[in-house]
Amino acid sequence: MKVKMILPALTEALSPFWRPIKYHLFPPLGLATIASFFDEDDEIDLQDEHVEVLNLNDEPDLVVIQVYITSAYRAYELADHYKSKGAYIALGGLHVTSLPEEAAQHADTIFLGPGEDTWRQFLQDFRTGHPAKMYESKIRTLVGSPPIRRDLIKRHHYLVPNSIVVSRGCPHHCDFCYKDAFYKGGKSFYTQPVDDALAEIERLPGKHLYFLDDHIFGHEAFAAELFEGMKGMGRVWQAAATVQSIFKPGLLEKAAEAGLRSMFVGFETLNPHNLREQHKYHNLNRDYSGAIKRLREFGVMVNGSFVYGMDSDDDTVFDRTIEWAITQGIETATFHILTPYPGTLLYKRMLAQNRITIHNWDLYDTRHAVYSPTQMSVETLENGYWRSYRDFYRWSSIFKGVWTKDNLADRLRHLAYTGAWKKAEPIWDMLIRLKQVNHLLPTLENVLNSFDNHSLAKQNVNELPKSQLSHTST
Q: What GO molecular function annotation could you give as one example from this UniProt entry (predicted)?
């Protein structure tokens, strides 16, 4: 059987004028995971349109397309193209799960939720000529899942080819997050067996890893055992976790000893009213500054995430957020406009309030305001978003961040990492066009590996300030 698997590109990723590096970071793990359920003699062509021109002249028997909201129209265009050629079309992903009726118009079969427990059955049905119109995930487990088909990934196209996911979902329930919509009807957070996760890590060449899990610290016992197993592997890695989990006694210590060097942290907002409104309770009454300090003590850089446009935000939110992020010495920051994704509680609430003004999925990219804010205009919100990137990554701001560090080595690392991420964008663009972006991976490894972990042998939970320990109880 000839199988074509496609990750459609967002419009921005195909610009002839500018190619952002973020679309060349990670390979399509979701499709490579599904590919592991096919037979050895099936001929699979996996293409990521972000990094390569699609071959649309082929004649596959089955076409599998992963659909995100801002690639939905492109996904449907590709599905219709192959359907007209007689191929069988299977669509899955976040957007398909959120709007199955819409996706079904362009597919022979749609998949709702994660695919590990539905693809075996689909392939059996497909081979016998009786596939269903829809498969919905109910049994949530990664036990017994075959290894990802990494042989299908074109590693040279990516800065971070060693991306990995060892869990699914997140234990928290935020109104603006896709997670609950995608995992409805079953468990919304579960992990691989630790031995399987360690075996997958062993398969990956080089030193660098990037855990794409929503919350690597989400299951404390699993995370602790995973980090223990990773000691001595010589890895340097990046991941995401919550403010709350950073204070868990002993967990960050184990992670840093296992090679953690950079953490994505969803601060989202400095306003407690916003946190309550979005049900992000695990950030309430947390010491953001203390979390950053604790990460820094273990040589871990911080990528802070912030969301604008919640109902308690007015036009002062941008300057307050940027000033706070700079003075905290955060190495990198990502900013987003609050976006009501279909299927989320936020979407349902705003739809009921008649506040959603745009239904063009291309604009649901966290860069456009697709709803009516309560305390500022759409123009103010969008301008503030763009200004935040400009102000945070201007040289004067970078140097302010540099001088929050205590020693020359940390200052130089901050300067190199923060400056390279934004100020070197023309270089990234050139390397992407020359298909040489992967050649900078050793440089990334060296920067991450250079962090000083001298405090690891000295610090333990008993030495944490009481103000920090008070946040570990909930």
A: catalytic activity
